[in-house]
Amino acid sequence: MTEAIEDKLIDLRQRVDVLLSKQKAYRRNHLKSEQVKQQSKTKKLQGAEPLNLQQNQAKDREQNLTRQRRLGMKYLGIAVIVGTVAAAMIFADGFDILTDTMALIVVVGIGIGHALGAKDGESAITRFGDGCVRGGWLGLLIGLALIAGSPIAASMDFSAIMPALSVASLAPLYGYFVKIITMQLD
């Protein structure tokens, strides 16, 4: 019986030794992971540099100047476009010939209607310009239909048809002119 008790005690002692060695291994691993965490925290704190607010303010000033320059160039571009078209109209002695209120109303009206249909994320200015181009072509088609249905066209009086064609062709001109301006604004 003493041999059985001795065997049981030896077996129990071996089990306790195994458990103690597992506990020591767990503690070593846990301590190592804690040390690694602590080292990474100290490295992060040591590696952090103070903010240089003056450098950030200088970048903001440069960006604002760049935006202002772009905005100034945009408006300068619009002025050049309008000035070039106005000069062409004046020097060609066609200022009276190249103005028609009804054609302008058709173009701008269709452009506004097209801009009102802008979806989320779409630019209303771009839609307005596209609508003006489409309105110009619709104005031309309306003008051609009116000319073709008139008694002047039936009699083939070209001295009356040609000025009417000139007025009808103003609508696409106005449409593309407005489109160029809206391209600059957008």
Give a summary of the structure in a few sentences:
The protein has about 190 residues and is mostly helical. It is about 85% helix and about 0% strand.
Keywords:
single chain, elongated, 7 helices, 186 residues, 3 domains, mainly alpha
Q: Care to describe what's here?
A:
This protein is an all-alpha fold and 186 residues long. The protein folds into 3 domains: 1-48; 53-93; 100-186, no CATH class. 84% of the residues lie in helices and 0% in strands. It has helices at residues 2-47, 53-91, 101-116, 124-148, 151-154, 158-168, 170-185. Helix 2 (53-91) runs antiparallel to helix 7, helix 3 packs across helix 4 and helix 4 runs antiparallel to helix 7. The longest helix has 46 residues, at 2-47. The radius of gyration is 42 Å and the shape is elongated.
Contiguous helical run count: 7
SS-based structural class?
A: mainly alpha
Low-confidence stretches: none
Which outline best applies? elongated
- On the 0-100 scale, what is the average pLDDT? 83
Output the radius of gyration: 42 Å
Q: What's the N-to-C terminus distance? A: 101 Å
Order of helices and strands: HHHHHHH
Q: How many domains is the backbone divided into?
A: 3
Helix content: over 70%
Strand tally: 0
Q: Largest sheet, if any?
A: none
- Proportion of beta-strand residues: under 5%
